[in-house]
Amino acid sequence: MKQLTGKTAIITGANSGIGLEAATVFADRGAQIIMAVRNLEKGKAARNSILDANSAALVTVIKLDLADLASVRSFAESFTNQYDSLDLLINNAGVMTPPYSKTKDGFELQFGSNHLGHFALTGLLLPVLKKTPHSRVVTVSSLAHKGAKIDFDNLDGTKGYKAMKFYGQSKLANLLFAQELDKRLKEHNLQPMSIACHPGISATNLFKFGKRDAPKLMKSLMHNFLQPPAMGALPTIYAATDLRLTGGEYIGPDGKGQRKGYPTLDTPHASASDHAVSQKLWEVSEKLTGVQFDFSKA
C-alpha cells in the first residue's frame, strides 16, 4: 500500500471495530481522516487513541447519524464547505439485528441506516468525489447478503419483521448499490470507482446481546472462530488502496467460506446479480431519500 499523504478519507462508523482499524492504518500512511460518527464522545475517544499512537495523525471527528437524513445532509454540507477533495469514502457503519425500530424518517432501522443513509451520503458527496482524481467509494457488505432478497412490499417491516432477515436485506442492498453505482459511473465516463467488500466474520462490537456485551464464554468462542477487527478491516483497506482494482469488484477474505483470511477477489451470491432488482432498488432509494445522483461531468 502506497503512502496516502495528501489524501482525504471519510470513514463512517470510524469509532470502533473495522472502521477504527481502517482509520488507524490510513492515518499512519498520512491520510487526513474524517471520522463520521453518531456519538461524538466515542468518536473523540477513538481519535485520541489514534493520536496516542501517532501524534502526527490528521484526524477530525464530525457528527453523522445515518438514521437521520437531516444529519446526513448536514454532514455533507459541512464537509463540502470545508474540503475541496475527497479521495476515499468508506461506507462502513452498520447496525445488526436490533429489535424492530425505525429511523427518524420512518424507515426500518437496518435498511435505513445501513443502506439508505449511505446511499444518500454518497449521492450528496458525489460532486466532490467527481472533482477528485482517482477517488473511490468502498461500501462494506456482509456474508449475510447470501440468500437474502429485497422485499419491496415490506421494506419498513410493518408486514412482519425478523431481525436477521432484515440485516441480510440491508447488506444485499449495500452490495447492489456498490455494483450499480460503479456501473453508472462507467456509463457516464466518470473517474470515481465503486468497490464492495466484506470482512468475513469478524469479532466486532456488532456482536452484542441487546444492551449487554457478549458473555465471557461466548467471547472466548468468538475469538477462536472469528478473526479480529484488524484482519476484518483488510478487505476494506485493500478495496480502498489496491491499484489493480478497476471498480465493481467484491473483496473478501481468502479462507474457507470466506470467513477468515487475507483479502482477495470474491464472488457475490447469485442474489446480487439481478439487474432489474438493482435498478428498482436505486429508483426506490432515490425516492425515499430525496437524493438524486448527478452523473454529469465535474
TrEMBL record:
Q: Does the keyword Oxidoreductase apply?
A: yes
One Pfam family matching this protein: adh_short
SUPFAM superfamilies given for it? NAD(P)-binding Rossmann-fold domains
Q: Which domain of life is it from?
A: Bacteria
Q: Which UniProt keywords apply?
A: Oxidoreductase
For this chain, one GO molecular function annotation is: oxidoreductase activity
Please give the Gene3D superfamilies that the UniProt record associates with this protein. NAD(P)-binding Rossmann-like Domain
Question: Has the keyword Oxidoreductase been applied to this entry?
Answer: yes
InterPro entries reported for this sequence: NAD(P)-bd_dom_sf (IPR036291), SDR_fam (IPR002347)
Q: Which NCBIfam families match?
A: PRK05854.1 (NF004513), PRK06197.1 (NF004846)
PANTHER family documented for this protein: PHOSPHATIDYLINOSITOL-GLYCAN BIOSYNTHESIS CLASS F PROTEIN, PHOSPHATIDYLINOSITOL-GLYCAN BIOSYNTHESIS CLASS F PROTEIN-RELATED
Q: What is this protein called?
A: Short-chain dehydrogenase
